[in-house]
Amino acid sequence: MLKTFHVRTDHHDQMIDVTSQVQDWLGEEGVKDGVVIVSSMHTTAGLTVNENADPDVKTDMLRRFREVYPWDHAEDKHAEGNTAAHMKTSTIGHAQTLIVEDGRLVLGTWQGLYFCEFDGPRNRKFVAKVL
Amino acid sequence: MLKTFHVRTDHHDQMIDVTSQVQDWLGEEGVKDGVVIVSSMHTTAGLTVNENADPDVKTDMLRRFREVYPWDHAEDKHAEGNTAAHMKTSTIGHAQTLIVEDGRLVLGTWQGLYFCEFDGPRNRKFVAKVL
Amino acid sequence: MLKTFHVRTDHHDQMIDVTSQVQDWLGEEGVKDGVVIVSSMHTTAGLTVNENADPDVKTDMLRRFREVYPWDHAEDKHAEGNTAAHMKTSTIGHAQTLIVEDGRLVLGTWQGLYFCEFDGPRNRKFVAKVL
């Protein structure tokens, strides 16, 4: 049971809450207990779990990541010029494993699953598999 | 089989070795082979695998994280003021997947599982599920 | 089914593409569908998924990591002097979970699995388990 989710990003850096998309799919499939592995198919966009309440957290996080991994860097060799996006993807991770119990993703009150674009806007995708 | 572990943290930043708690629970449940997913229920505390021998590694790591993600930042918008803790959690990860073989966590000699508090002290919890 | 992979690293910092080693093992074992968990047995070497095409990405990434986590640091207490390697390992992760479908690792066009040495050269190992 491999599912592909398509994500259209609108900005260069963006965190998109995909929790409900994954939860809805689990409901459609009737998944009760297990884990779901979600995995970005890209090297400049990843997935992380973080705050789902105050949108300022996303703004702050994307800006903090730009400070730690500045886009322009005189020593970067990679011709595409997006080494910073590769750094951010390996830092947060290309994939996450989430627990499912009684048909629900087991997340804390303030936790949401975010698809993180670091070199957009682009058409992106991630896949999900249940075990 | 979903297990909740409660952790009381004592400091603002803290790495607490929870390897034996998880190992003991696997023993009680009679788990022989598989994997265990451990997942923090918070967005300002995560889990990582790192050195279990010299306690100076923890001290160094927490200080290094504070340098990369300083607590006070003039541009942060998030009203709680703990954006740095959100950054650290997404950097190390909110969850880890550990292999179990012959009833034991498969870890290297110097590897331990750490619950990492980045905005304490608080009462925290993480969950574990075996597959 | 626990498999140990041995890796000889040649440099202090190095990203080694191990995708085909893992894929070949899955083929030998006849694994069709599931997930494979790969886990470094070290605290100064980890695993990440990133670009498999332009080798400059690896060069850039290793240099960027050295900038964020400089090797020499006056305040580090750890006697081995390799705190930076511990930081990098927790940042990228000691382990990754990859999806397998129709006998193939489910990776994007540009994604490869890398064993990342941060304190070499050394003889290293990582383990893999299929679920």
The strand count of chain A comes to 8
Radius of gyration from the alpha-carbon trace of chain A, in angstroms: 15 Å
Give the helix tally of chain A. 3
User: Which strands sit side by side, in order, in the main sheet of chain A?
Assistant: 1-8-3-5-6
For the biggest sheet of chain A, the summary is: 5 strands, antiparallel
Helix content of chain A: 25-40%
Structural class of chain A: alpha+beta
> How would you spell out the order of helices and strands of chain A?
EEHEEHHEEEE
Low-confidence stretches of chain A: none
Biggest contact: A-B, 31 and 30 residues
Q: Taking all residues together, what is the mean pLDDT of chain A?
A: 97
User: What percentage of the residues of chain A does DSSP assign to strands (E)?
Assistant: 35-45%
Q: How would you summarize this macromolecular structure in one to three sentences?
A:
3 copies of one chain form a homotrimer. With 131 residues, chain A is of the alpha+beta class. Helices cover 26% and strands 37% of the residues of chain A.
Give a structural overview.
3 copies of one chain form a homotrimer. By secondary structure, chain A is α+β, with helices and mostly antiparallel strands. Helix content of chain A is 26%, strand content 37%. Chain A is built from 3 helices and 8 strands, in the order ββαββααββββ. Chain A has a 5-stranded antiparallel beta sheet with strand order 1-8-3-5-6, covered by helices on one side. The first copy, chain A, is elongated and about 50 Å long.
